[in-house]
Amino acid sequence: MKKLIRDLVSRYPWLDEVRTSVLTKGATELIDFFNRSHPVTRVVSKEAQEFLESGAPCIIAIYHGRFGGMAHFFKDKSKVTGLVGLNRDGELLARFGKALGYNVVRGSTTYKAVEGALQIVHAAKSGQCPTLAVDGPKGPAFKVKPGVIRIAEITGLPIIPFTCMSRMPLTLRSWDKMTHGFWGTPFLYVIGDPITVPKNSSKEQRDSYCQLLEAEMDSLREFADTFWDPNKGAFAR
Hints:
Layout: H1 2-11, H2 14-35, E1 40-44, H3 46-54, E2 59-62, E3 80-84, H4 88-99, E4 103-106, H5 113-125, E5 129-133, H6 147-155, E6 159-166, E7 169-171, E8 179-181, E9 187-191, H7 203-226
Parallel strand pairs: 1-9, 2-5, 2-6, 3-4, 3-5
Antiparallel strand pairs: 6-9, 7-8
């Protein structure tokens, strides 16, 4: 069957566009259906709350596997710009994002990294909030790559660490340990203190901020993972 589909697409290229359009429409409606079903509990640091209430732009740092359900982070999705890869999966993700109301730029932290970074910098300077998966396009999972630190240094925008977790999580067997929740289950948002990278930082300083961001995001992730646990989390007696 797969070979037949490839042969048909090769012979009739317009079929690929039809297939992509159908997948985009179906997937965005399904994603929107799921997103509207989740009640959200927020745990936000005082500094992050004050900054987010100011309405100033920032960089949202996420892990690949821990952004499912974050549709309610901003009321105005048009303020969010995501960096999406240039591969075929990236094309679908870009279309999903645009259909859901987000801004999307194409690029990567590896292939054509400079092009992607320049688009993110431009978006930041125009008042957008770049949202970056900081563990890179291929991992390892939960390991912060230096690109986000460099972009924060160039733009002057603070980095806001973010993670989320469902009360009934479903984790896929993928490199990024993608975790989402079943329909209607509560989601937890955990948002940490802003991290600002000074201009003209040395390599040693950038490495230090990279480690600081990773430590902060891991702390948020560990808190989120135990939040719903009656023996360890926020409801423990």
